[in-house]
Write a structure and sequence with these properties.
The complex is a heterodimer. Chain A is mostly helical. Chain A is built from eleven helices and four strands. In chain A, a hairpin with a 2-residue loop joins strand 2 and strand 3. Chain A is globular and about 60 Å long. Chain B is mainly alpha-helical. In chain B, the strands form three sheets. A two-stranded antiparallel sheet of chain B has the order 1-6. In chain B, strands 2-3 form a two-stranded antiparallel sheet. The chains are: A mainly alpha, B mainly alpha. At the A-B interface, helix 4, helix 9 and helix 11 of A face helix 9, helix 10, helix 15 and helix 18 of B.
Amino acid sequence: MDLGLFAQYVMNGLMLGMMYALVAVGFTLFFGVLDVIKFSHGDVLTVGAFTALASYAGLSALGIHSPWLELIIMLVLATLAMALLGMLIARYLVMPLRSAPPLNTLLITLMLGTALRESVRLFYPQGANPKPFPALLPRASIDLGEFNLRLDNVLMLAAGVAVIAGLQYLLNRTKLGLAIRAVAQDEETARTMGINFTAIVLITFAIGSGLAAFAGVMNGLYYNEINFGLGLYLGVIGFSAAIIGGLGSIYGAILGGFLFAGLQTVGTVLLPFASAYKDVFAFAVVIALMAWRPTGLIREKISERV
Amino acid sequence: MAAARERASLWPGFTALVAAAVYMIVLLGVERPPLVILLLGVGIAAVVAGAWAGLFADVSRSFAEHEDALGLFAIAALLAVAAFFHDDHFVLLLVTTVLLYSVATLGLNIQFGYAGVLNFAGASFFGVGAYTSAVLNAYTPVPHLLVLLIGGLLAALVGSLLLLPVLRTRGHYAAVVTIAFALLFKTFIEVNDVLGGPQGMQVKGMSILGWSFNDNIEIGGVSLSFYMNYFVVSLLLLIGAFVVVRRLERSWIGLNLDALRLDETAASCFGLDITRWKITAFLIGNFLIGLAGALYGMVGGFVAPNNYTFADSLILVSILLLGGIGNPWGLIVATFIVVVVPEKLQAIQEYRFLLYALMVIAMLLFRPEGLLPRPVRRYFPGWRP
């Protein structure tokens, strides 16, 4: 394989990895503070992407046509709306079921995901069809030999890195981050230290869901198309990525996301039939990885409390 | 006298069955949407009033005491419903669908309800069965009853591919394995040309010993819809599955599965082989789902990837939750509601996934045990909790 094509695949893998990582980080955050898996996470991403698309339509109707301004308003609206949605979900669906069997939390978030997905399909105008997503980033590109480096991809990657670095700073360098980590480590001790548990859980869900909205917009910008089933796909892969990296660890989730994207890209390149079967391959990888390392690459210590 | 008072009467259960059969006949017979809505309202009101008056306690005691007799009555009631609609293709197809979905949810019930093994790919295993009958009926002369069996076995075989990840993971992790499989299965049959791709395949109708199931029947001047054939076979299948599931539940196997679901660690401390029983439950469950799917493929005459999506799997899970996990009687009632209501009210057909998702959320928040919760296991004959 020549270098240009190789670079193209690497770029593609990095973009995919960034999206997976952003989704996986959400799963890890939720698991950290509440020990729950929120299966509706992927569909929150879908709703976020569609919120951005709707606000684009709104801005066009208002006569705003500056791409940067549009993009920023779309991102802010989508992120804030999803942060709010995430908080509502945590407050009214996940937290009331804390004492119920874990199966109930699983089912309620799974069904909520379906409800969100179906609402987009049914109530967004022509939501059942794939919708074109506007290309708002500059389309300039640099030719490096065979490889065509597109500016929009570079910008998206940089934005993704900035978001993850920001999250890292928030978690490790601020009081809020300290509180989140404290709750994740030991809920009761955190409470006795005067941390408002409910508020921290809600903020964590807001952060995670905001990240999902960001990933959703990124997905739309990258593929220039979104559909209602997008979140289900990204959700399952993001969750697997979080597991592979070891649930509860932010670095693990990011690593898992890129690892997964790497596997998927390698699979697409090496297996001749893989282009048609690329989703089949991705899910087969999910199942195989779960069989191989059910608790992640970094083994989590399990001791059953009796 | 005291002994007589302790033994619950047969009549409450019998009355409930008669009422249910009459209601089914009226509901299935009504065509116009306003009337259907009115009837559904009446049904809900009657159920709520019955629950408020405490009639259901009598009914469930009656069912607990006289299950065999009431089971026979239930079969008779179903036959009466079928006889009433003997020449109505649509209604018979609907009732047959209810019966087959009930078989599939009974299979799912063994997994979710008894062993606590999660399976969110129910529709996929149903699809494995349906595609089996499509392929075998088209290309091979395998007898059709055998095709049903092969459909079930193949579903169990495909399920066994998932055994390793399902056994090594638990809870949420196991859920994601089956979700990934559900997505994989749908994508796979969609991109696969051999299986008809997105357009799906026609399925040849069933015929046993030269009796073609897709011809209408004439008996003494009365013509019966050809769906009557399928109805009878489906009913037999449901009776078989019901008896097997019920026996399984009451046997020591069921006891082991219950122990396993309630506390894996404790169960293994008492020497139960967790792996063995999980495998048993997962495979038997998938077998039943595949069996039902194989027959459903022939009933519908058509299979396509869009009928076996993840959303359809979630509908099966909704049935389970609505009926009350672990209670086979509840499941059949819930299947009837979930399958028939959107068919009778075409206006909500498009919204059914959304409605059922919202319904399950509401159930989990307000009545997590389901409409007809599973009664406490009876450990000794005549013992009452």
